[in-house]
């Protein structure tokens, strides 16, 4: 099973890298699946086995990156979590700056929105309150990150924390 996962990971990595290279030379809309597969050295069957579209490659790459960060960060104490969330999240996005800038240059900021809503697992909620909470948080995160990207991915206000965004459940 390990060899199958390694092959799968290699296909995903090859397609991601090839797509970023191609997007560096021309608009995403001008890149064909055949051209992408040729550049990545994989078959079209491999592409369609793993992705429905080229957009899926970009969203999955962002999600895999932030999932690894989240697995570590979510172990923080509550105080550290609230204090460090913004600086650490933005540091993680800076690691993917090349990809994020390519997404924005191709007028695909909706992919970042899709990524954030996927990470917040809005669709996985059965509890109505939690679903609204997650949707509100995802929308706020997207709005803040989108503005930060448009402003050049520079410094974020030092005193900004998750405490500024309160979504307290009312007492019953």
Folded structure, characterized:
With 172 residues, the chain is mainly α. The chain has 2 domains: 1-51, Arc Repressor Mutant, subunit A (Orthogonal Bundle), CATH 1.10.10; 53-172. The chain is built from 8 helices and no strands. Helix 1 (2-23) crosses helix 4. The radius of gyration is 18 Å and the shape is globular. The mean pLDDT is 86.
- The quaternary structure here is single chain
Uncertain stretches:
none
The global form is globular
How large is the radius of gyration? 18 Å
Number of domains: 2
Q: Please, what is the average pLDDT?
A: 86
Helix tally?
8
- The helicity comes to 55-70%
Portion of residues in beta strands equals under 5%
Number of strands: 0
Q: Please summarize the sheet with the most strands.
A: none
Distance between the termini: 50 Å
Instruction: Encode the helix/strand succession as letters.
Output: HHHHHHHH
Classification by helices and strands: mainly alpha
């Amino acid at each position: 099973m390990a060899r199958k996962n390694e092959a799968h990971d290699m296909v995903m990595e090859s397609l991601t890298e090839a797509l970023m290279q191609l997007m560096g030379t021309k608009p995403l809309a001008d890149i064909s699946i055949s051209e992408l597969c040729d550049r990545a050295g994989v078959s079209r069957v491999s592409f369609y086995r793993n992705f429905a579209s080229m957009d899926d490659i970009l969203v999955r790459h962002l999600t895999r990156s932030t999932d690894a960060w989240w697995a570590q960060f979510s172990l923080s104490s509550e105080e550290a979590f609230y204090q460090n969330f913004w600086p650490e999240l933005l540091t993680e996005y800076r690691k993917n700056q090349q990809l994020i800038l390519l997404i924005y240059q191709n007028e695909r900021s909706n992919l970042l929105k899709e990524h954030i809503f996927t990470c917040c697992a809005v669709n996985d909620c059965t509890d109505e309150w939690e679903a609204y909470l997650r949707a509100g948080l995802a929308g706020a995160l997207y709005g803040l990150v989108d503005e930060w990207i448009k402003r050049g991915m520079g410094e974020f206000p030092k005193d900004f924390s998750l405490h500024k965004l309160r979504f307290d459940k009312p007492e019953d």
